Write a sequence for this structure.
């Protein structure tokens, strides 16, 4: 599992390694870690992509989790985005 | 001002499917022009692990993957936010250890208009061409979208 903030000159990522599957709590914590790597401005312009990424993770258990490749949440007409990359397995089951 | 298409694609399942069909036909046209009919199959699941569907939110509206090229694309469509051409593109890479995933992926993020569709057609055509390298594609994206 890899969480990334990309585009607009930013390339930051957090790799979640550990128990398989990754839980919702671990995913959300990973997003918080990723946020911590960004400046206030970078975080402000990615507020909406982060919100959508969090929603995607929170909604996953109701559907039994999600598998690869995950989703990319971008600003309209822009490459500024937050990626939830699911590289293998079904994750966010609970 | 651009000629917008399917602005209402999020308003009903019927309009959403019509928009998907638009992309399916565009991709089919491109693949036929490259003698690759049937080579690019949809690859991104549209449902959760238990089979319940993802939201029909345009993310992605269409996607394709060639097993032969070990390469893929996804098209993320959002409603228009202005009257200009709205499109961005980038490449993603996946490490070889993740065997279920393609090695590289072209991602398009756009609102649909006659003009953005033409750019998407050019980007997809370049990416789907067997001889195109990642470096060439990155340069093509920069040059095409800088115009």
């Amino acid at each position: 599992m890899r969480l990334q903030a990309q585009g607009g000159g930013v390339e930051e990522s957090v790799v979640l390694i550990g128990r398989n599957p990754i839980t919702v709590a671990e995913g959300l914590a990973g997003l918080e870690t990723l946020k911590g790597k960004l400046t206030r401005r970078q975080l402000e312009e990615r507020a909406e992509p982060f919100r959508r990424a969090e929603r995607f993770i929170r909604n996953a258990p109701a559907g039994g989790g999600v598998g690869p490749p995950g989703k990319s949440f971008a600003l309209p007409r822009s490459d500024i985005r937050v990626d939830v990359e699911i590289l293998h397995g079904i994750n966010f089951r609970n | 001002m651009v000629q917008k298409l399917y602005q209402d694609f999020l308003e009903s399942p019927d309009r959403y499917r019509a928009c998907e069909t638009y992309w399916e036909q565009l991709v089919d046209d491109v693949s036929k022009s490259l003698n690759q009919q049937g080579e690019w199959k949809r690859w991104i699941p549209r449902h959760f692990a238990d089979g319940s569907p993802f939201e029909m939110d345009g993310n992605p509206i269409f996607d394709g993957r060639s097993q032969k090229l070990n390469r893929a694309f996804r098209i993320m469509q959002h409603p228009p936010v202005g009257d200009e051409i709205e499109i961005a593109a980038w490449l993603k890479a996946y490490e070889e250890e993740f065997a279920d995933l393609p090695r590289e992926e072209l991602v398009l993020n756009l609102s649909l208009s006659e003009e953005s569709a033409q750019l998407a057609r050019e980007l997809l055509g370049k990416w789907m061409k067997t001889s195109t390298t990642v470096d060439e594609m990155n340069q093509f994206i920069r040059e095409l979208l800088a115009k």
Notes: Chain A is about 35% helix and 25% strand. Chain A has one domain: 2-85. Chain A has a mean pLDDT of 95.
